[in-house]
Amino acid sequence: MTAAPHSIDPATYLDDLLAQASPDLMRQMLQGFINQILSAQADTVCGAEYGVASAERVNYRNGYRHRDLDTRVGTIDVAVPKLRHGAFFPDWLLERRSRAERALSTVIATCYLKGVSTRRMNDLVATLGISNMSKSQVSRMSEELDEIIADFKNRPLDSGRYAYLSCDALTIKVREGGRVVKCSVLLATGVNADGYREMLGMHVATAESNASWKGFFQDLKARGLRGVFLITSDAHEGIQHAISEVLPDASWQRCRTHFAKNLYEKVGLLKV
Q1: Which residues contact 90 (CB under 8 A, 6 or more apart)?
Q2: Hey, which bits of the chain come out as E strands?
Q3: Rounded-to-integer distance, Cα 214 and Cα 204, Å
Q4: What is the pLDDT of residue 220?
Q5: Domain tally, the chain
Q6: Residues 48 and 114 both lie in one domain
Q7: What pTM does this model have?
Q8: Where is the domain boundary, 119, 153, 187?
């Protein structure tokens, strides 16, 4: 179930999947990321980072004022930094909230997929009017995103049975050891006891294989996955063998979308 890199945008795909399957995660990530961006902007206006003595400082921080921001994933609390002299107000965010919120959601997904570095972060937030972010600011953003993702990936699956499971793999390119290589992001989405779809887990593997899917399913079971009745995926042999080994009581069904795509690739266009 390998997606061709030219046929799907990984950042957009993961952004939409997270927003649909786990709005709480996206809301938490969006709130933390926005507040970090605003803090970085305020530091730029002040001429120095918060709490750092510098001869280039022209202003000082003086607490926060909180504003609610309505987004696709719910209302978040935006902490707007206050300055001792003058005013700081993020017009790009609170006046054009819909467009800015969509841009930030894509930035967050891209950060997670590509890894956060100073150069990449500068490129990503430049479209929002922010430039020359320091390494310490990028480091704080990276640590906060990593903590949120780690909490999400390791959370207990103890809310009840997940009768239906949908599994897929996304192929992306990453930089590793000074070279660009392909890796697979394994994804599992389940229907919980309340009938809502929930993203259960993500796992980055060197390849989509029986071993990688087996380890992914074992991790889900260790976190509390139970009561699986039906699993839907493509016809990759690795995932089928992993299901029979780790979740033997679950039935397997081939994804109709993948089947139609495979059929189309074999048959091609019919000339009339």
Answers
A1: 38, 41, 80
A2: 61-71, 74-83, 164-176, 179-191, 197-205, 230-233, 251-254
A3: 13
A4: 95
A5: 2
A6: yes
A7: 0.58
A8: 153
